[in-house]
Design goal:
Blueprint lengths: L8 H8 L2 E3 L7 E3 L9 E4 L12 H6 L4 E5 L12 E4 L6 H16 L3 E6 L4 H13 L4 E3 L9 H7 L7 E5 L8 H8 L3 E4 L13 H9 L10 E5 L5 H9 L5 E6 L6 E8 L4 E7 L2 E7 L4 H17 L3 H8 L10 E7 L2 E8 L5 H13 L8 E6 L8 H6 L2 H7 L3 E5 L3 H7 L5 E5 L3 H10 L5 E5 L7 H10 L4 E2 L1
Helix pairs in contact: 3-5, 4-9, 4-10, 7-8, 9-10, 11-13, 15-16
Length: 478
């Protein structure tokens, strides 16, 4: 949390048109969740899908929130509880509207160079890589976790200190039209699309429609901004059209394509790191990445393109990538202790789609097992794939075979189609839920094994990760 004042009461009222009640002081952070709220935070009582934030205002103030933003129609409920900023509006949620207005003001007042990242796969990892390399070159503010939706983006803007030199924002979507208002708030100097894949395809008529939705990010570019595209992706021409229709002053491409502006001439993927030899706008650069995986190496080209577009130090960015570690649930590696040795856990449990599972299986194939060890993939259903869901799951069988995966455990009715497409020798267990896999896996894993866990969020594959860590005492990250 930023310890210095983030917003004064005067700035808050000017940006939101609200009215302060009670004794107000400058706030030092912002929150919408009392479980993570810090003393001095500005608490927004937004109406969530399941709960209304107004139900937690008194608790937030009691925990030390500097001020709470509430609907003006309910302000009297909190008289005497602490400082309150009441806001009015004609929309469904005046508090969310106030948070957006404050986010717009945060963008207006900053001199930071702003980057926006989207894509079907890899946007959080790329955002974290940019946070990592830019933090070595100046004060960098970036989205927490995957705060990339209609409340996550404005909240991240509100939290941005005026002193920041760089801002990195992840922007996501499930439907067409969702990115336009978000990128309009962020107004990036540089906008990057990692790739376009059949993710959330049930909400779209085609892959081209997904590309159009991702291409919306360029609509918010400041005049003369830089659009960065994956030259290897089949959607490149469609994304290029969106970039050229925007206010972008320049389009930069990355990939292995001969015409890519940031081009990898050689990628070496090792079990614990990757090595990339590349040309960055004509400048030769060789660097290591502390996170293994070919997909990570490919996204690092986009990172280098952003660094160049910002005018930051390429050599320092290349050095920084050597210490890059994967975000939680996106490739974190942990040693699991047994009496007779150790196994190795790869936590990819945060989310899943066809492209990311293929990438995870490819990475698993490169990890060396111990004596008598096996490569074990534990996979949960991929959701939002529409009518093609069964086929997308079944089609993963070739990636399992190509990676030489020894055993596959599955959770959910869709992933059963993959299980049934595998030869008997590779079948571990097909279960209805992730919970049903916990005990069988705890009894199956042995020293020397490498276990990779991945699935869509709602399948809760993370419970398997936690069970493995809890059973095998004192796991150490690698």
């Amino acid at each position: 949390m930023n310890a210095s004042p983030l917003w004064t009461p005067e700035a808050l009222t000017a940006a939101t048109g609200g009215t302060v009640h009670g004794h107000a002081k400058p706030v030092t952070g912002a929150s919408i969740d009392t479980r993570t709220l810090q003393p001095g935070d500005l608490f927004f009582a937004i109406a969530g899908e399941a709960r209304d934030g107004h139900d937690f205002v008194r608790a937030a103030l009691a925990q030390g929130a500097g001020m709470a933003v509430v609907d003006a129609s309910r302000a009297e409920e909190f008289a005497g509880a602490g400082a309150v900023l009441s806001v009015a509006g004609t929309g469904a949620d005046p508090v969310l509207a106030a948070m957006r207005a404050l986010g717009v003001e945060a963008r207006r007042r900053t001199a930071a160079r702003i980057v926006a990242v989207t894509g079907s796969v890899g946007k959080t990892g790329t955002k974290e890589a940019l946070r990592h390399v830019l933090s070595a070159q100046g004060e960098t503010h970036a989205s927490v976790a995957s705060y990339n939706n209609h409340w996550g983006v404005p909240l991240t803007l509100v939290r941005m200190p005026a002193s920041a030199a760089y801002g990195v924002f992840e922007v996501g979507m499930n439907h067409g039209g969702e990115i336009v208002p978000l990128t309009a708030m962020v107004r990036p100097d540089v906008a990057l699309v990692t790739t376009v894949e059949p993710v959330h395809i049930e909400h779209f008529a085609s892959l081209s429609a997904i590309a159009d939705a991702k291409g919306e990010i360029f609509s918010g570019l400041v005049p003369g901004g830089v659009a960065i595209l994956n030259r290897d992706n089949p959607a490149y021409p469609r994304l290029l059209a969106h970039a050229l229709a925007s206010q972008a002053g320049r389009v930069v491409s990355f990939g292995e394509h001969a015409q890519a502006d940031v081009r990898a001439s050689r990628i070496v993927v090792r079990p614990d790191l990757s090595v990339v030899e590349a040309q960055v706008m004509g400048t030769p650069v060789t660097y290591q990445i502390g996170t293994p995986g070919r997909h990570v190496a490919m996204n690092s080209l986009g990172v280098m393109a952003v660094v160049h577009a910002l005018g930051a130090d390429l050599a320092l960015a290349a050095l920084s990538l050597a210490s890059l570690k994967p975000p939680v649930g996106r490739g974190e590696r942990t040693a699991l202790a047994f009496d007779a040795g150790e196994a190795f856990l790869i936590d990819e449990s945060y989310n899943a789609n066809p492209a990311s599972i293929r990438a995870a299986l490819s990475t698993l194939a490169t990890v060396e097992t111990g004596p008598r060890g096996r490569r074990i993939a534990v996979l949960g259903d991929m959701l939002e794939l529409g009518q093609a869901g069964e086929e997308h799951h079944r089609a993963l069988a070739d990636a399992v075979e190509a990676g030489g995966i020894d055993h596959v455990f599955t959770a959910g009715p869709l992933m059963r189609h993959l299980f049934e497409a595998l030869p008997m020798s590779r079948r571990g267990l097909a279960a209805a839920t992730s919970a049903d896999l916990v005990d069988p896996l705890l009894g199956f894993v042995r020293p020397g094994d490498v276990v990779m866990v991945k699935g869509s969020n709602s399948i809760r594959m993370g419970r398997i990760v936690e069970a493995l860590k809890a059973r095998y005492a004192n796991p150490q990250p690698r």
